[in-house]
Amino acid sequence: MYAKSEILRRREAVGISDIRELVLHLATDAPPASWVRVENPRSVTKVVALLIPGLTPDILGLPPLPTSATSNPNVPLAVPLPPAQLPEDAPPGVPFISSTFTYACPTRAPGDQTRMYSVLNAFFQGPVTGEERKRRQAERVTSERAQTKSPLRYLLTKEQMIENGYPMPSYLAETFEKPSGWVETKVDSTEDVLPAPLTGELPRIYAMDCEMCMTDDSKQLARVCLIDYTSGIVIYDQLVKPEKPVVDYLTRWSGITAEALSKATVTFNEVQSHILSVLSATPTPVLLGHSLESDLNALKICHPRCIDTALVFHHPRGRPLKPGLAWLTKKWCGREIQNRGEGGHDPEEDARACLDLLKKKVENGLGFGEFKVDTESIFERMSRARQGTVRSAVVDHGNPSAWHGQKATSCIACQTDDEVVDGLINAVGSHQFLFGRLTALADARGWITSKSTNDGPEPTPAPPTVNPSPAELSPTLAALDGQLRTLYAALPARTALVIFTGHADPRRMSELNARKAAFEGALKMGKNVEDLEAGCRWTTADGRELEEEVEKAKRGLLFLGVKSA
Question: Is the alpha carbon torsion for 4, 7, 8, 9 positive or negative?
Fold first, then answer.
């Protein structure tokens, strides 16, 4: 039952973090939430959380959220029963929602005035408990008192390398099957590789960065740079002759041009052999880089000793987010990199930034570059439940084990919503908490666009005015309704079902942010406002519209229920 008086006192709607805390209350020994009352929470045997973006009030026949100053938009809305006969022009709806839940509670996604933050990150990451914070602080103080100022202190452990997708040498772990063309660093003794001793002879440390181009087959190494940590001297900087015709030099990101690469005479195999010989010295050298697993994949080399600035420094919003190298360098070294605009990145500049960041870390100690707001994943909190570790499962599209499901007991990778539902049904018998995400509706509504990467062009968001008709949405909604009914029927009695939508239509917000970023980028490259076309300028009115669209995009809905015995 929702505590309406408490919701009325709140300045904002129920947040994604509030949903996380409710899940923890139901699944573990966490304190109860103030905005909802759960009778006999310990009688709940399992918790299933479903994120279904694209499910909006108009589809469910709910009234729009009030905008009047005299009405509170955060109060739960009564869900009407499905009508016996739908009007011809009405959306087909999701009858399961109407027949299962009594109320829809408005929610608000995290973010600031101009951006919406990740709903998944807000759900899976939260602040640690007071008791855990004290334990961590005591551990940090003890560690920093005893620490030796050595860069080897920041070597990745075997577990960290596996967790972050590093190609592993066979003598460390049998987790990576090397395809043809891959090599691994030779070592005298595997016993001395991990962890490295903090005293004695310091191995050579090399900061490395690689750039890629796109051939008609796949991405290929185009340039690699190695810098010695101690001297700061570039010991290797080589363009790589492409094995196949280049279709895109990715100049905006790589800095590689057709003119530069036409002068390359050294083959990939020669570059790989040279790097391997450098890394096979005694004692085994250390490689330093930013998201270094990408560079090792580009070189097709497995190496046991790595330091990764994307991991030893923290993202301001906490893990599993990783900070960008340009942001880190500006924040902690006080200088800008990667600011050549269309000229792209310079691997020597990036490698030297990693080198300087590590030196700052060594000089200032373990706590340098970390944000003092301690966070942890929902699964770490579940592992400390007084009733024993809660077995958890993440069933999601893509590869959840490499992202938000890293700490879960089980991860099931899926390609379709039907696979997600099947995965949840198969896992519900052996897990107490399960998370699944159904994305077909958001995809059908044009909400999902591929994210930009450093290796390819930014996608163009779908125009916000292009919306599918009720007839076009009907098959997707019918499939969603059937999936929810199938899943619900398979849930054991006394299972709490938490369905939340996360956010509303983000397309107009994304479109405006892309325009704003393009405008700021043009100014950064030295262009005058007067030289820009009217449609490329950014005005105060655009700023106001962006803030309004961000607030609209943050709106979501929450449905709570417990399956009766």
Answer: positive
